Amino acid sequence: MGQKLKITGWVAAGAVAGVLTTVSLQTVARGSLAPLPLEELQQLAAVFGMVKSDYVEPVDEKKLISDAISGMVAGLDPHSQYFDKKSFKEFREGTTGRFVGVGIEISQEDGLVKVVSPIEGSPAFRAGLKPNDLITKIDDTAVRGLSLNDAVKRMRGEANTKVLLTIFRKDENRTFPVTITREEIRTQSVRGKVMEPGYGWIRLSQFQERTVDDFVKKVEEIYKQEPNLKGLVLDLRNDPGGLLDAAVAISSAFLPENVTVVSTDGQLAESKSVYKAAPEFYQRRAGSDPLRGLPAALKTVPLVVLVNEGSASASEIVAGALQDHKRATVMGSQTFGKGSVQTVRPLGPDTGLKITTARYYTPSGASIQAKGIVPNVLVDESAEGSPFAALRMREADLEKHLASGQGPEQKDPEREKARDDARKRLEEEAKKPPQDRKVPEFGTDKDFPLVQAMNRLKGAPVLVSKTQVIVENKDEKKEN
Questions:
Q1: Is residue 150 flagged as an active site residue?
Q2: What is the pLDDT of residues 145-182, one digit of tens each?
Q3: Angle at 431 between CA 429 and CA 435, to 5 degrees
Q4: 355: which strand partners?
């Protein structure tokens, strides 16, 4: 890596309890800028003056400027963002795994806040919120029309205060209120256990500051209980991402030394980088390799990686690296497709700018952006299939999303047909009496994708997908 490039954390991933986490590549600003468009800047100044003098009531000058900056950046793509004092604080909290809130990973769908997953053990988890629940109101404020960050601000607050969320649960066709008491969320990003003699399961729910250390401890626990491990499932479902160095470290735990994990490419020289499976690309403390205590057998143990539409950014880096190097079989659903790099630059002591500066590429050179990782084996959510999977929001569905940069994008008629069919099925479901459809907890013997992953490791038959349609650019040839 160039000397000007310093990894400080923050990989673009998704929304954690409402906070978008992202990759941060701390770079040096360009030495020169193109001439400024004076006429347009004069128009901006004129509008500013008109609003100040003519608007129906006085407007705060600082708010006007802040809103102008926010609008300019928001017009670029869904992941570029201006941070005011409060949102910058929340952003930094999101990378530590400690914050005050309700404890949900979220995205947007049809103008509403969608629950990707409640964080295990959080107030939202205990209150019974489920993946795919839609939040329609926060206290007395309708969510439709709010930005994702505005919705987050309303869900955040002081510890021990309450927030009233109005939930629409599509598969039960009902709306109901849930009162949740905010508390400090200390997310446990690593879970795992021996599923049965010879086979282990490790789930990563985020890539945070403690994730690598917790991963090493969990691997050591599993190997202590099962020294002759025959197979391992690395579960990245609903993992929205997190820290880049953590993603490189987890990939390195399974890969040969010095092979490429991920590369980035953008306009700035500092954005053109290659990250390899070596300590200097992921260790945070000089001379201390967090992976040094891992069993050597981890490099060769048969491995399945589970992913779904909620697996984004750092999760896609790991899945793509292990797939390209043929180190693991990737199973599940096509991932979210968040393959852009954001640089976070401070604008002052309490404000900052997050701006997209590069795209991610897997070791084979394939862009993750607006495509995601296509599993080697497509597996449904249940034995009955994934009838509503086509309706789930992906990076390619976001307004103003960045293109992959590898050929023109075009709508896939098969996916459009699958969406129409899924909408019709959803309408039929809505006519039925409400039913309590409990989604099996990850890591149980009723977890259908995990059962199929275990079957794959044991050489038993795998029930492949009946319903999934792959999102791809048919003009582009690629290998998986």
A1: no
A2: 888 888 988 998 899 999 999 999 988 889 999 999 99
A3: 60
A4: 343
